[in-house]
TrEMBL record:
<dbReference type="Pfam" id="PF08240">
    <property type="entry name" value="ADH_N"/>
</dbReference>
<keyword id="KW-0479">Metal-binding</keyword>
<dbReference type="InterPro" id="IPR011032">
    <property type="entry name" value="GroES-like_sf"/>
</dbReference>
<dbReference type="InterPro" id="IPR013154">
    <property type="entry name" value="ADH-like_N"/>
</dbReference>
<dbReference type="GO" id="GO:0016616">
    <property type="term" value="F:oxidoreductase activity, acting on the CH-OH group of donors, NAD or NADP as acceptor"/>
</dbReference>
<keyword id="KW-0560">Oxidoreductase</keyword>
<dbReference type="InterPro" id="IPR036291">
    <property type="entry name" value="NAD(P)-bd_dom_sf"/>
</dbReference>
<dbReference type="Pfam" id="PF00107">
    <property type="entry name" value="ADH_zinc_N"/>
</dbReference>
<keyword id="KW-0862">Zinc</keyword>
<keyword id="KW-0520">NAD</keyword>
<dbReference type="InterPro" id="IPR020843">
    <property type="entry name" value="ER"/>
</dbReference>
<dbReference type="InterPro" id="IPR045306">
    <property type="entry name" value="SDH-like"/>
</dbReference>
<protein>
    <submittedName>
        <fullName>L-iditol 2-dehydrogenase</fullName>
    </submittedName>
</protein>
<feature type="domain" description="Enoyl reductase (ER)">
    <location>
        <begin position="12"/>
        <end position="346"/>
    </location>
</feature>
<comment type="similarity">
    <text>Belongs to the zinc-containing alcohol dehydrogenase family.</text>
</comment>
<dbReference type="GO" id="GO:0008270">
    <property type="term" value="F:zinc ion binding"/>
</dbReference>
<dbReference type="InterPro" id="IPR002328">
    <property type="entry name" value="ADH_Zn_CS"/>
</dbReference>
Length: 349
């Protein structure tokens, strides 16, 4: 039996999360109720916690954060087919309209009417239960952990990046920034058959994890010169694809420096400054194709299949685990111990 009330970690003010008791949502006819088992703490959650906004998305009332989630189906709406009570699932967090031009052309990640978990004004998954539209709920294999199922969400960003970057088997990819998104992008590139994966960061501890996630080579920018190392690794040619995940203006510039003539650049990281200086002459001279990456679309089945391969142990990026009661402590850990923290996992149940 499910109780009427549940616990939720609610952001009530800047840098303030309170554990509250709220009503368990009732699933609509096209929804399922999910008992949340694991939720990853994302950089966007930390931005809302510290600053109350990301661009035009502003926290104007108390909100439940968390969008990288997995759990068990415990109740099913009357019109739902293909899901059963007890199924273990991964949750795609963005409910799109299905009617706009972007949805109809298959790029539903650009839907202007998307209701995305933990993006104001919509609540997220740092709570014991959520109701979710059934078409956004994906069963996972029995052998897949709740942690891996939660990490399907950030992994999907990496999958979308290599898809948009047109990575082909046997190619060389360089990834600027070995935070959680950079690391899962390295794993996605490995699964896609990249011959050489070069991970770049300022922290050696992150580069060490990158090697475990699929990077064949690393560059520590505190000690090594980017251009020299790329030339050494690629015999002076440059990478076929450069992916920026750090959200750093210098990293954006580094992608242009590192990619070969006729190569591709994919920008994933959101820089704190809106305008970033780049060398237009180099973009033209090299005839570089540049693309932006916003979330993902049609990635979940593929991502779940890729993460079912035992060679990809995405849980290596998990550095800390907290119960729901200690969600505020988890946020403070993410903010004040960046050197030793990659992905934090919260356990609502």
């Amino acid at each position: 039996m499910i109780e009427d009330k549940m616990k939720a970690a609610v952001l009530t003010d800047l840098n303030k999360i309170e554990l509250q008791e709220i009503k368990i949502p009732d699933p609509k006819d096209d929804e399922v109720l999910i008992e949340i088992k694991a939720v990853g703490l994302c950089g966007s959650d930390v931005h809302y916690y510290q600053h109350g906004r990301i661009g035009d998305f502003i926290v104007e009332k108390p909100i439940i954060l968390g969008h990288e989630a997995s759990g068990n189906v415990v109740e099913i709406g009357r019109n739902v087919k293909g899901l059963t009570v007890g199924q273990r699932v991964s949750i795609e967090p963005g409910a799109t309209c299905g009617e706009c031009e972007y949805c109809k052309e298959g790029r539903y990640n650009l839907c202007p009417s998307v209701e995305f978990l933990a993006t104001p004004p919509y609540d997220g998954a740092f709570c014991e239960y959520i109701a979710m539209r059934a078409d956004l709920v994906f069963p996972i294999p029995e052998e897949m952990s709740y942690e891996t199922a939660a990490l399907v969400e950030p992994f999907s960003v990496g999958v979308h990046a290599i898809n948009r970057g047109r990575l082909s088997p046997g190619e060389t990819v360089i990834i600027m920034g070995m935070g959680p998104i950079g690391l899962v992008t390295a794993a996605a590139a490995k699964a896609a058959g990249a011959r050489m994966i070069i991970g770049v960061d300022l922290e050696q501890s992150r580069l060490d994890v990158a090697k475990e996630m699929g990077a064949t080579h690393t560059i520590n920018l505190r000690e090594e010169n980017l251009k020299e190392k790329v030339n050494l690794y690629t015999n002076g040619t440059g990478a076929d694809l450069a992916i920026e995940t750090a959200g750093s203006p210098k990293a954006v510039q580094g992608t242009i420096e590192s990619v070969r003539k006729g190569g591709r650049v994919a920008i994933v990281g959101m820089s704190p400054q809106d305008e970033v200086p780049v060398s237009v002459s180099k973009i033209i001279d090299k005839e570089i194709d540049m693309v932006g990456i916003f979330r993902y679309h049609h990635t979940y089945p593929m991502a779940i299949e890729m993460l079912s391969n035992p060679e990809i142990d995405i849980e290596k990026i998990i550095t800390n685990k907290y119960p729901l009661n200690d969600t505020a402590e988890a946020f403070e850990k993410a903010i004040h111990d960046k050197t030793n923290t990659l992905k934090i996992m919260i356990y609502p149940n």
